[in-house]
Design a protein that fits this description.
The structure holds two protein chains of two kinds.
Chain A: H1 5-13, H2 17-29, H3 34-41, E1 49-55, H4 61-74, E2 79-85, E3 94-96, E4 111-117, H5 122-138, E5 143-149, H6 153-159, E6 164-169, H7 174-179, H8 182-187, E7 190-193, H9 201-213, E8 227-229, H10 238-255, H11 257-288, H12 290-300, H13 306-319
Parallel strand pairs in A: 1-5, 1-6, 2-4, 2-5, 6-7, 7-8
Chain B: E1 6-10, H1 19-30, E2 34-37, H2 44-53, E3 58-63, H3 68-81, E4 88-93, H4 97-106, E5 111-113, H5 119-131
Parallel strand pairs in B: 1-2, 1-3, 3-4, 4-5
Classes of the chains: A alpha/beta, B alpha/beta.
The complex binds guanosine-5'-diphosphate and magnesium ion.
Chain lengths: 325, 133
């Protein structure tokens, strides 16, 4: 099988799912050959509605993703799903079980599901996830759902790139609601209390409504995030959720926010990549040059504070006229 | 570059136990691999479609139901038809030795691991295979 970037790109546009799968692997591995394919396919992406889904483990994100995808399929829309789960920082391995809750989708060639381990660095993951979104977008998926565990900064970084961000929680745990801290409350466009069949659902719903109403906002809000309840297991509330997602899309387009979001995403994407490159280049200078080592040594000896050290390092990079590409 | 070995663990057929396959999954994860688990009661068609989408290196098939002689050859045939014969196919579960030989010699299975297999044996088998490529 031919695996050159051009060949994979051509096959991707012909809807060859093996090519899509292989390209995603190359991106995840950080293989340089993927670059050329990403360059070629960029022009063909930008049509999908990217939906982020985040929330604590066990809240029912995968089950809900499955139901949403089934709903879209009933309307003959195609769906790409990216499930990101944590990689063990100690072993580098991961057990990715989201497919278990998406069995009803398996066998449908119009649904492409990819499980990703979060692997290495913070910036690296959001760059890789973005590349994967772009691949599925160019692959022709109408909706791309990105599921992440809403635990930390990394996940927020990822869902931030979605055009519509859904925050999922469940009843019972008062701590659950507490866990929806400011960061995540700000990024949510739609809030879902899943497992509404469980005791305490109404209470959780009203608690959450109150938190959403009083959440800190930067500008005068023109979109009021709906707070909805679902029973993903039975499919209850899924149509309403899909309706809210479409409403949000219409809002984004009519208010001009969509363009703002796209500009913001492109900017962040580029800065993230640049950040990785600069860090890598600086690291190489430190490891290979006496003066780089010397900066660290003087820091250790308490002669040089970290801020001054970073300035000195920046000076060193400028002196070298370092090309970080 | 950060190439990881990706393994798809699946349970085709009708048996309803996944303790064994999950223990294997944990061992592979702890050895630094990315393990994708399918859940119970998969058809061969679904297994192959998922393995392709996930672009795995290894497909691990766990079977306790006794239907291995029907399901496993179907999976390897479908993999071949989809141009995915380069994936390593391993089988685990209750498989009589004669059947195991037939699966290994005639149906593209690299290795059958019986019920008493040590997970370390499975880990090192995959690691050795990966290294030899
Ligand atoms: N009672 C109830 N259980 C649910 C519901 N939705 C999902 N679950 C169960 O919650 C567990 C976790 O679901 P999963 O989708 O894997 O959650 P995730 O970790 O957020 O992706 C599974 O056992 C699901 O069957 C629901 O609406 N009601
Ligand atoms: Mg999940």
């Amino acid at each position: 099988m031919s695996d050159t970037a051009e060949e994979l790109f051509r096959r991707l546009l012909e809807k060859d799912r093996r090519a899509a799968a292989r390209l995603i692997t190359m991106v995840e591995n950080g293989q340089p050959e993927a670059r050329e394919a990403l360059r070629l396919l960029h022009r063909h992406s930008g049509r999908a509605h990217i939906v982020g889904l985040t929330g604590s483990p066990g809240s029912g994100k995968s089950t809900l993703t499955c139901r949403l995808a089934q709903h879209y399929r009933s309307l003959d829309r195609s769906v790409g799903i990216i499930c990101v789960d944590p990689t063990s920082p100690f072993t580098g391995g991961a057990l990715l079980g989201d497919r278990v809750r998406m069995q009803e989708l398996s066998g449908d060639p119009e649904v492409f599901i990819r499980s990703m381990g979060s692997r290495g660095a913070l910036g690296g993951l959001s760059v890789a996830t973005n590349d994967v979104i772009n691949i599925l977008d160019a692959f022709g998926k109408d909706y791309i759902i990105v599921e992440t565990v809403g635990a930390g900064q990394v996940e927020i970084e990822i869902v931030k790139f979605a055009q519509t961000c859904i925050v999922v929680t469940m009843p019972g745990a008062g701590d659950e609601i507490q866990a929806i801290k400011a960061g995540i409350l700000e990024i949510g466009d739609i809030f879902v209390v899943n497992k509404a069949d469980r005791e305490g659902a109404l209470r959780t719903l009203s608690d959450l409504e109150m938190m959403v109403e009083t959440r800190p906002v930067r500008e005068e809000p023109t979109w009021t995030p709906p707070v909805m309840s679902c029973i993903a297991l039975e499919g209850t509330g899924v149509e309403e959720l899909a309706g809210a997602i479409d409403d949000h899309w219409v809002y984004l387009r009519q208010s001009g926010m969509l363009e703002q979001k796209i500009i913001g995403r492109m900017r962040a994407e580029m800065l993230e990549i640049l950040n990785l490159k600069v860090t890598r280049a600086a690291g190489a200078v430190i490891d290979s040059e006496g003066r780089g080592q010397d900066i660290i040594k003087r820091m250790v000896g308490r002669e040089l504070d970290p801020h001054s050290a970073a300035d000195e390092m920046a000076g060193l990079l400028a002196e070298r006229e370092l090309d970080v590409r | 570059m950060d190439k990881k070995t990706r393994v798809f663990l699946c349970k085709p057929g009708l048996d309803g136990h996944d303790r064994g396959v999950l223990i294997v999954g944990q061992a592979l994860r702890d050895a630094g691999m990315e393990v994708i688990y399918s859940g119970l009661k998969q058809t061969p068609e679904n297994v192959v479609e998922a393995a392709i989408q996930e672009d795995v290196d290894v497909v691990g098939v766990s079977l306790l139901s006794g239907a291995h002689m029907a399901l496993v050859p179907r999976i390897t045939t479908l993999l071949r038809e989809n141009g995915a014969e380069d994936m390593l196919v391993l089988v685990g579960g209750v498989i009589p030795p004669d059947d195991a030989r037939v699966l290994e010699c005639e149906h593209g299975v690299a290795r059958v691991f019986g019920p008493g297999s040590d997970t370390r044996e499975i880990v090192s088998y995959i690691e050795d295979w990966r290294e030899s490529r």
